[in-house]
Queue: 2 jobs
Job 1
Amino acid sequence: MSIRVYELAKELGYSSKELVKKLNELHVSVKGHMSAIDEDTAEIVRHELLGKKEQEKKTQKSKKKVEEKVNPELRPLRIKVPLSVKEFALKINKSAAEIIKKLMAMKIMATVNQTLDEEITRQIASGFGFSLEKILTEEETLLIKHKQFDDGQGLKFRAPVVTLMGHVDHGKTSLLDVLRKSNLTAREAGGITQHIGAYEVILPKGKITFLDTPGHEAFTAMRSRGATITDIVIIVVAADDGLMPQTHEAINHAKAAGVPILVAINKVDLPGAEVDKVKRQLADIGLMSEDWGGSTIAVEVSAKKETGIKKLLEMILLEAEMLELKADPDRVAEGVIIESKLSKGSGPTATMLVQNGTLHLGDVFVCGLTHGKIKSMRNDLGERLEKAGPSVPVEISGISQIPMAGDKFYVVEDEKKARELSVSKNENLRQEKLMPAQRASLEDLFTQAQEGKAKELKIIIKSDVQGSLEALGSSLQELGTKDISVSIIHSQVGAISESDVMLAIASDAVIIGFHVGIDVKAKETAEKKGVDIRLYRIIYEAINDVRLSMEGLLEPTIKESFLGRAKILQVFKISKLGKICGCMIVKGKFVRNAELVRLYRNDECLYEGKLESLKRYKDDVKEVGEGLECGIGLDRFDSMQSDDIIECYRVEKIARKL
Ligand code: GDP
């Protein structure tokens, strides 16, 4: 059963043109007045638009009257959003299947555990005759309260927070040590310093806070948890070695975060130092140095000879001045956890970076899933402090449990409030675990673009050779349209690593792997966090998928779920059957009728196909579990070797369209 747009328009009292516009606003894609809509969708549209018409009428009348005249069919529904399809179904006393059906009519594919955001919940609720009244979570109430402190009145300049990144052995640690020595107070204190994860350098012209866990992994891990704490990134490049893979990676991570980059060209004392070569390499990737007419500040330094350090510090302060970093020292404190540990004497301790306000001894706070009351505060020189203002890192004690790096902390009025908040956050977290967050994916790109949520498709490309990176990168970029642009935020030779997955989470990107595999840890994180990783062996297929996704035509979603992993212990040749591998199931299980298996050697995928046979001793079996040995044969493939890894997957096709 379906109805034409012009018929529905007539029924609802709209012109066809108006209705087409409204339908598009409701994400029902129709071309014109002769387009057909199915009855379910029409029903939702009726609810939605009749509700709107009522509201339009309402606003013209007095407020009191309006309340009485609210569309009688729309009953108020007070719930917390986001929530899962299942929870929503319970709240309105319907079956999850009914909700899913309505969602499908809106061209949204959902499972029972999927999270519905506020907008979708509102639409669906009205489809069922409810008007949504959102209950704020304790945390949202707290955030709103904290925002109220920001009246913009008491803003003062604060010190920049700086992270050093670069290739291993290029001198990050050495440089951090030297930078630390330039601290005026440190000199007075006789250089007894403690590692607390960050330190302040006080200079005649201002202060700088350095995070002393160098490396882009920590930086992006924090960012993937929603914490951006670095104002400036210093890329350290050894002048005798030039830009190396991790330098490129670090630069891309900093760029993806939108953090300004300064370059420290280190080890200029070495005879093999080639500063110009480094500058040329930088120019090649769009970081032309200032003396070459570009806008990137590159300072020549030597951590060993301690030269160029003063200039580097000056440049950091100059950059900070341009960034106009400000905070209000007179407000209630908030910030982020940089490190935490369990120490014998004082229980859990954590290094907090104050981002706004001033933290005082005795302040009560919530942080991550835990809470506490500041018992003591020390800086990196071991000095006891009574208060810490914006950009100051302090190690504190008085926390009930160890928080995680990247957790935000907020000072609250009393301990009762702090306890309540951490309970409600724990509850939210439990729920979050049940529902993986919605992330950028090729399948949803078109829908998200229509909803105005996606204007850019961010892609990370990993490949086996440099040549295909470039070919793929430029072809993908060309697919950009005026509505959705394509940007390659990172591309590199090598297997898909955990750092790539973190970057994808932090930047909402999808990952395309070409002739490469995925690290075990990266795979686990990606599965847990719902990162869209696609592996291809043919360039055209990768390009085609992205093109289709931009047009909303990407065919059915293929969902792969990992079943098990086996390691080949020995390979046997059996004349009739070809080669059979004697394997040990190291994780999960192998299932005879699984749709897909892959064989990896050193993270490189050499085979994709089906199981030919699965045996225990001489018998064919349906399933073999973890810790057991079995014989595995692969369909038309016999160049396996011992120590290769075989993985087994279930593949489901989920129809995207009705
Ligand atoms: P990181 O891995 O980036 O933290 O690098 P390190 O700071 O550990 O330095 C790696 C090596 O380079 C060490 O042996 C340092 O002594 C050396 N190194 C660091 N900076 C300089 C420098 O400016 N000149 C010279 N000649 N060696 C340096």
Job 2
Amino acid sequence: MPHDDPDHPHSLLPPDPALRVKALETILTQKGLIDPAALDVIIDTYQHRIGPKNGAQVVARAWSDPAFRAALLDDATAAVSEMGFFGRQGEHIVAVENTPEVHNMVVCTLCSCYPWPLLGVPPAWYKSDAYRARAVREPRKLLSEFGVTLSEGTSVRVWDSTAEVRYLVVPMRPEGTEGLSPEALAELVSRDAMIGTGVAVAP
Ligand code: FE
């Protein structure tokens, strides 16, 4: 088996995935095969542009279209694949809707499971030990550090993502947005609002 051979290049890579990626990036850069600046752009695109924009379109449609909202809450995987959002890390999506009574918040206590086709790659804090532990232990305090202050009457429900189920939070539609188009509404939906560490705000 080539992978068991100590002289095989694979054996020289460190076992930790982040270190392996760094090692690969270094080798590819040294060989002139990739430009690290271009890589940063690609990562940024998935983190801030493509990813969360997909989820925001889904939320805006749920706010605007009662039949779609019902379909999304019933079977999110099917509802979002009809919009073209599916693929790796997007199997078995469950949408959870915020109400004045319940604020939903998502964590993966085990690692960093996340609905990639809707939100892109998870932010670093989502993967941190601190977030994973505190989301369960002291969600309200954690939320306040994200700038989310909930009223006394709102309870927090924390959903633990797994490789089997990934959650999308449907934030509450902000007041005063009645006349807005789905496109304009989507602009109000941040990545954090769909993780539950933020809320949607009116323009
Ligand atoms: Fe995970």
